[in-house]
Design goal:
The complex is a heterodimer of chains A (about 140) and B (about 550). Chain A is about 45% helix and about 5% strand. Chain A is built from six helices and two strands. Chain A has about 140 residues and is an all-alpha fold. In chain A, helix 3 packs across helix 5. In chain A, a hairpin with a 3-residue loop joins strand 1 and strand 2. Chain B is an alpha/beta fold and about 550 residues long. Chain B is built from 17 helices and 23 strands. Chain B is globular and about 80 Å long. Classes of the chains: A mainly alpha (about 140), B alpha/beta (about 550).
Chain lengths: ~140, ~550
């Protein structure tokens, strides 16, 4: 799955490069795909997607945060037991949370959901598949 | 290729170009284009205000002793408090922050800001320098906000939105070398004009354009595109008069200007830089456009002077209950930890939907669904302070905006303090989309460091002149969890009216309850609409 996503990114990069000789986007972006383009996420695996995107609100330790409102903790979360739920939230959004999955490929959504469901004290052993994501598009 | 003879091409010069009265022009439009065009033209001369603001509100009739609890002391809350208290209502405002103003906010040297996750920044800017992390511009057509600025004694000054000497930049064009806005626009308009003129003269557009209109069109293309006598966009005084000279005109023995070489059409098109021209053309970015003198938070200070005494700060709303007797709001004093309540006959709630959706409340299912249907934008702004105004001193850029495809998206030079010596602060990033999420997930120090790194691709002076920076990622702002509400056509159709309809004793107001999302005018017009309907309800009751 990881390899597939990577090749997608490389394919789109070379398409951009074909327009002009100097595709310096490669010097801007991080090696794991962050800061590639504004219109979609280009992170190459679930861990880098979490680190570069989800952690903005759910925080690097997955424990969320509280102010006038709150960002829910994803740590040891029973809400993640059914893999379809986080897939649904990513694709549809929830309250103020935008539907970020719409800026990811099916593989990227599945990768980041599987990453969260096996980290931060979560030990769910039934991975979601890209096809589960595709069904919601 | 047959080109229009010079004499024929001057058709339009027979019509008086200056001193033409409105009636002359309307009569000309009426003759040549029919009544519909005439009506449209008349509209454009009239009071074509873009927002719904129609002048100061006047509430007829008294308040019947009713009380209103307003949640949130941003622009929507403060407009509501001001107008309702003037109409005689008993008003109390609850605000989460220790100060009023909400997103009408500026950061200056000495200010501290703690984002979600706990990172605290202390702005290091020198005296007089600031950035506006939230709204930063006031378009002419935002008459409601301008009205309150006048009323509250908030001075306005021009904001440089479009600066022809600022840059358009793409990492994938011109080897990453920034281009002056004026050269790209002149070459783009010029080549497009020449092509269209060729098509007209080749009779390729005969089906769409009458012979008479074709003559007018050709003359307009010469004017629009800076074409020469032969309807060509080529090196010379016409093109250099727009795109800039190789050596500019002067006086005395060094006076003679030397024209510059236009880029060829293919280069302009493939650069993609034409994409960044349209942004300045929209209603909300057209000159004249303003900013408050001294920072956007001068609007907050103005409202504070007027109705600050009605606001209870440090109050975190935890529950909103309504019944036949009124509205009861539970809140936490964030300084003392005390759990308190406030009551009123009615409630105007301006809390951002990202927060409100998480607060316990008894509203109808339609309003509840609407409150949960609006995602919040992740915009990021980064302010950078430099030892000197190298953009002015080295590059002749006075205010305005440089656009780029780098993750910083733009650099906005300060529209104040031109020509001054010493440190100055600019907006070093205003990012949206994937870049904004990715910047948010960095620490504030990393965001600033990245902004300097990326910006140095446009201004080589960046690294040597950099002093300090401050970064606001709106998803991490504790009291909004996002920059503004984002609607789609689908969500508007399904939820917008439900969000704005009065629900029992509760009305929603704020930029999220407007068609001017992300702008303070949305908050103003929404608050005026909500308070007007509340007053009508009270009068009818």
């Amino acid at each position: 799955m990881k390899k597939k996503t990577l090749s997608l990114v490389m394919a789109s990069l070379s398409a951009i490069g074909a327009i002009t000789a100097s595709a310096t986007a490669q010097t801007v972006a991080d090696a794991d795909g962050a800061f590639m383009t504004s219109s979609r996420f280009s992170e190459t695996d679930g861990e880098s997607m979490y680190k570069h995107v989800c952690a903005g609100c759910h925080m690097p330790d997955g424990k969320g945060s509280t102010g006038a409102g709150f960002y829910p903790s994803l740590s040891q979360s029973e809400r993640l037991e059914a893999g379809g739920y986080p897939v649904y939230v990513l694709m549809e959004g929830l309250n103020g949370m935008p539907p970020l999955g719409r800026m990811m490929t099916d593989d990227q959504v599945a990768d980041v959901v599987n990453y969260v469901r096996t980290h931060f004290g979560n030990k769910y052993k039934d991975p979601v598949a890209a096809a589960d994501v595709a069904a919601l598009r | 290729m047959q080109l229009l003879p010079q004499g024929k091409g001057r058709f339009m010069t027979e019509i008086p170009q200056s001193g033409m009265t409105k009636r002359d022009l309307l009569s000309l439009v009426g003759k040549s284009a029919g009544a519909t065009a005439m009506l449209m033209a008349m509209g454009s001369f009239g009071q074509a205000r873009a927002s719904t603001f129609k002048g100061p509100v006047k509430f007829e009739g008294d308040a019947k002793g009713k009380s209103v609890l307003i949640l949130g002391a941003g622009v929507a809350g403060m407009v509501s408090a001001l107008e309702l208290s003037r109409a005689g209502y008993k008003v109390q405002v609850l605000e989460y922050n220790p100060a009023v103003g909400g997103r009408s906010w500026s950061l200056r040297g000495g200010d501290t800001y703690t984002e979600l996750g706990g990172a605290t920044q202390t702005c290091q800017f020198s005296p007089g320098n600031y950035i506006n992390p939230g709204p930063w511009r006031i378009p002419t057509e935002h008459g409601g906000l301008i009205h309150y600025c006048k009323m509250l004694g908030v001075g306005l000054e021009p904001f440089q939105q479009q600066n022809y000497n600022a840059y358009l930049h793409s990492t994938m064009a011109f080897g990453g070398k920034p281009q002056r806005y004026k050269t790209i626009q002149a070459d783009y308009y010029g080549h497009v004009s020449e092509l269209l003129a060729k098509a007209v003269n080749a009779h390729a557009l005969d089906d769409a354009v009458t012979a008479e209109d074709a003559e007018i069109l050709l003359e307009s293309l010469r004017s629009w595109g800076a074409l020469d006598g032969n309807m060509r966009y080529v090196k010379g005084r016409f093109s250099s008069g727009r795109r800039g000279w190789s050596k500019g005109p002067g006086g005395g023995l060094t006076a003679e200007p030397i024209p510059s070489d236009p880029l060829d059409l293919s280069t302009v098109l493939k650069s993609g830089l034409w994409r960044q021209i349209g942004g300045h053309l929209s209603n909300e970015h057209q000159h004249a456009i303003f900013q408050p003198v001294g920072g956007m938070d001068q609007i907050a200070r103005g409202f504070e002077r007027a109705v600050g005494h009605l606001v209870r700060v440090n109050s975190k709303v935890t529950a909103i209950k309504q019944d036949d007797g009124g509205v009861t709001v539970s809140f936490l004093d964030t300084k003392t930890g005390a759990k308190l309540t406030a009551q009123a006959d009615y409630c105007i709630c301006t809390i951002p939907l990202s927060i409100l959706s998480q607060i316990e409340k008894n509203v109808g299912p339609k309003l509840e669904a609407a409150i949960g249907a609006v995602p919040y934008s992740p915009s990021v702004k980064i302010g950078l302070e430099f030892k000197r105004r190298f953009w002015e001193q080295d590059e002749e850029i006075y205010g305005g905006i440089t656009s780029t495809d780098l993750p910083i998206s733009q650099i906005s030079y300060p529209s104040y303090g031109y020509g001054s010596q010493g440190p100055a602060a600019l907006l070093g990033a205003y990012s949206g989309g994937a870049f904004a999420y990715e910047l948010t997930a960095l620490s504030p120090a990393e965001r600033v460091q990245r902004a300097v790194e990326w910006g140095s691709q446009i201004h080589s002076q960046y690294k040597s002149e950099f002093m300090n920076g401050v970064a606001v990622a709106w998803h991490r702002v504790p009291w909004t969890q996002g920059c503004f509400g984002t609607w789609t056509e689908e969500s508007r159709a399904k939820h917008y009216r439900n969000l704005c309809e009065m629900d029992g004793r509760i009305l929603i107001a704020g930029e999220h309850a407007s068609y001017i999302g992300g702008w303070q005018e949305g908050a103003v017009t929404s608050a005026l609409d909500a308070t007007t309907r509340l007053h009508q309800h009270v009068q009818a009751g």
